[in-house]
Specification:
The complex is a heterodimer of chains A (311) and B (272).
Chain A (H helix, E strand, L loop, with lengths): L9 H9 L5 H4 L12 E2 H10 L2 E2 L4 H6 L4 E2 L3 E6 L5 H11 L12 E6 L6 H18 L4 H4 L7 H6 L1 E5 L3 H17 L3 E7 L11 H22 L2 E6 L1 E6 L2 E6 L2 H4 L5 E8 L2 E8 L6 E8 L2 E4 L8 E2 L1
Parallel strand pairs in A: 4-8, 4-11, 5-6, 5-7, 7-8
Antiparallel strand pairs in A: 2-3, 9-10, 11-12, 12-13, 13-14, 13-15
Chain B lengths: L3 H11 L11 H10 L3 E2 L4 H6 L4 E2 L3 E5 L6 H15 L3 E6 L6 H12 L8 H8 L2 E5 L3 H21 L4 E7 L1 H5 L9 H19 L3 E6 L1 E3 L5 E3 L2 H5 L4 E7 L5 E8 L8 E5 L3
Parallel strand pairs in B: 3-7, 3-10, 4-5, 4-6, 6-7
Antiparallel strand pairs in B: 1-2, 8-9, 10-11, 11-12
The chains are: A alpha/beta (311), B alpha/beta (272).
């Protein structure tokens, strides 16, 4: 390997080259390594994909279009206008991930990274109480009761949400870098929610620097999702874009960021109803489903004319 | 001071013994092109027509497009087609956790028997075992993987069996964007270095290479491929992809090709 391709600083590379070391073989003896390290065949991945469980969103319609819920090993971006329910959905997922597998969760903890300060702990308690009540209502004769275990209490739900508050973009990047070590020590974390990913990058930024930082951040989040097999959910704001002669609503952070997620869900208003639309996915069809934000959290919409639209 | 690689390259030209000369003449190239299969069909007729047959071995093809325009779908379709029809090995480097084995299985069922039952599990397993997927999350790991691949291909070539015929990197722009543009030209140097390594692998081991790129806003709001001016010269074939909002119809236009007129466009449908 040439010295120019090594991950070291330019100054160090210059020194090595001027001293006569232009390739790695001159520095040490190379041993051949195999490609098999880290690579998997598509057949093995097919079986792994079938075994991956998903996190329910508590709305059956949204779960259906998502193929069961939010999937692990994916970075899912959820965007929408203010007030559509992004934070509500984030909180619902932070609670739902703690449910046992037979109830649609993963039995794990949640990391909630708040950049705007929109995390209201009283609301989380309300959603956790509703979740706990729903669980005990449906599991009257369940394995837990047989085993003598008490159902999950709202306080347990709160205990398993690990909350970080970041106040600047440097803190945000530092935290995402730190997450690798943190999650290695807390292996039961199964979801990382960032609300919202855009806030600190929208004001007063040199565009070239922003593109580089966001690109690096996206790759780190992808690596986290894959390495620890957890779900990463990014909540994003909307902005207007001038295209084809008119102003359109589009997700913030520009074109280069729009490639940084595996799946994208857009939340929008249709008349008086809230809808979720799958905008980008490697394996799901484009579809939209209605949902509602109730006192108990995210639930199915109960209007008369609801239907799932396949695009 | 002459480095060892320069020394060996010079030696290659000065040491030939009249039997294995380091140059070929036009007739030999023509006969080779006609006799050997140098073109890999992508599985999509519109794309194959535009590319004059498909992906050419020894060349790097770039597919650029805005988000959700079908680049990953096209990469998965091409991987399935090459693995099934050409019986070759595919190396898929995935930077965005977008490789979906389920979708590959769906494409394979479509390709093999469009109207009948699903593919036999044994055949499906054999074909899917020839598609290797590796996640890479930074450009240095990509160099690592490519160097491992190079030593593997070198030892295979000595033994005489060459399995791999296609490398797909989806997407190379997400690896290059974080390093491009900072002070100093180190980012651009790494980008050029990466592409020269890919071209070398493509030429020496007779592989086709497909890379995807995203787009940025150009003049008048029309998307143009990202990665800047110097990137434009680094790939052999350049395609621009777009999709009508909410539909299954894709539009692709040819920006650059060594043997076809640019500006041609095609339309095709990839459905479920």
């Amino acid at each position: 390997m040439e010295v120019g391709r090594l991950p070291i600083s330019a100054a160090l590379k210059g020194k090595l080259v001027s001293a006569g070391y232009t390739s790695l073989s001159l520095l040490s003896s190379l041993s051949p390594s195999h490609l098999a390290r880290g690579a998997q065949t598509a057949w093995d991945m097919l079986h792994e994909e079938e075994l991956l469980t998903r996190i329910t969103t508590s709305s059956v319609d949204i779960d259906n279009i998502l193929g069961g819920g939010i999937s692990c090993r994916d970075v899912t971006e959820i965007g929408g206008v203010p007030g559509i329910g992004k934070t509500q959905l984030g909180i619902q997922l932070a609670v739902n991930v703690q449910l046992p597998i037979h109830c649609g969760g993963l039995g794990g903890k949640a990391i909630y990274i708040d950049t705007e300060g929109s995390f209201m702990v009283e609301r989380v308690l309300q959603i956790a109480e509703a979740c706990s009540n729903d669980m005990s209502a449906t599991n009257t004769v369940s394995q837990d009761v047989h085993a003598g275990k008490v159902g999950m209490q709202p306080r347990d739900f709160l205990e398993n949400i690990l909350y970080f508050r970041v106040c600047s973009y440097t803190e945000q990047i530092a935290l995402i870098n730190y997450l690798d070590k943190f999650i290695s020590e807390h292996r039961d974390v199964k979801i990382v929610i960032i609300d919202s990913i855009t806030f600190h990058f929208r004001q007063d930024f040199d565009m070239a620097l922003r593109t580089r930082l966001l690109g690096g951040m996206a790759l780190k989040l992808m690596k986290l999702a894959k390495k620890f097999c957890l779900a990463v959910v990014l909540l994003n704001q909307v902005t207007t874009k001038y295209a084809e002669g008119s102003f359109q609503l589009t997700l913030a952070l520009g074109d280069s960021w729009s490639h940084a997620c595996t799946n994208r869900i857009i939340l929008y208003w249709n008349g008086n109803e809230r809808y979720a639309y799958i905008d980008k996915s490697p394996s799901l069809r484009s579809a939209s489903a209605p949902y509602a934000v109730t006192a108990k959290g995210i639930r199915n919409s109960v209007s008369n004319c609801k239907r799932i639209k396949l695009m | 001071m002459v480095s060892e690689s320069m020394g060996s390259s010079i030696g290659q030209f000065s040491r030939w013994d009249g039997l294995h000369r380091p140059w070929s003449n036009g007739v030999e190239l023509m006969e080779d092109a006609q006799k050997n299969k140098h073109v890999l069909s992508t599985g999509c007729e519109g794309m194959d027509f535009l590319l004059r047959g498909g992906l050419h071995k020894g060349q790097v093809t770039e597919l650029a497009g805005p988000s959700s325009s079908g680049k990953t779908q096209f990469c998965l379709l091409t991987a399935s087609t090459v693995a099934y029809k050409h019986m070759g090995g595919v190396i898929y480097l995935d930077t965005g956790n977008s490789f979906s084995a389920k979708r590959i299985a769906q494409f394979l069922n479509q390709i093999s028997r469009p109207a009948f039952d699903e593919m036999q599990p044994i055949v499906l397993q054999k074909v899917m075992n020839s598609i290797l997927c590796q996640s890479v999350f930074d450009i240095f790991s990509m160099f690592d993987v490519l160097h491992c691949l190079e030593s593997k291909l070198k030892s295979q070539m000595c033994r005489g069996d060459n399995d791999e015929i296609l490398i797909i990197i989806d997407s190379i722009s997400s690896l290059i964007t974080p390093i491009l543009g900072s002070s100093g030209s180190q980012g651009r140097a790494l980008m050029v270095s990466a592409m020269s390594l890919l071209k070398k692998l493509a030429h020496e081991y007779n592989l086709a290479v497909l890379v995807t790129n995203h787009t940025v806003g150009g003049d008048g709001g029309i998307p143009k491929p990202a990665l800047g001016e110097s990137w434009k010269t680094l790939t052999h074939v350049r395609l621009l992809l777009s999709r009508d909002c909410g539909s299954d119809t894709y539009h692709v236009s040819l920006l650059k090709h060594p043997s076809a007129a640019s500006g041609k466009a095609a339309k095709f449908i990839i459905n479920n």
